[in-house]
Amino acid sequence: MPVETRLASLRDKHAALDRIIREEEQRPWPNDQEIKRLKLEKLYVKEQIDGLSVRPHIAAE
């Protein structure tokens, strides 16, 4: 998968996780454990994005 395609996919996933977190936080009784899990997943995706953005030549390996 080309780096640009992977980055676009990761950015879409990051945005989707952000929406899900906001929706969960707005519920009358938000699930704090689920919010924490989603935030960790979002951070992991962000780290992948940053890694590919900084070193795109390594991503092809």
List the main descriptive attributes of the protein structure presented here.
single chain; 61 residues; mainly alpha
Number of helices: 3
Biggest sheet details: none
Q: Quick one: how many beta strands?
A: 0
Order of helices and strands: HHH
N-C termini distance: 11 Å
- Helix/strand/pairing category: mainly alpha
Radius of gyration, CA atoms, in whole angstroms:
14 Å
State the helicity in percent bands. over 70%
Q: What integer is the average pLDDT?
A: 91
Silhouette: elongated
Poorly predicted runs of 5 or more residues: none
Structure characterization notes:
The mean pLDDT is 91. The chain has one domain. The chain is built from three helices and no strands. The termini are close together. It has helices at 3-26, 32-54, 56-59. It is mainly alpha-helical.
Topology readout:
Layout lengths: L2 H24 L5 H23 L1 H4 L2
Helix pairs in contact: 1-2
Could you give a quick summary of the protein structure above?
The protein has 61 residues and is an all-alpha fold. 84% of the residues lie in helices and 0% in strands. It has one domain (3-55).
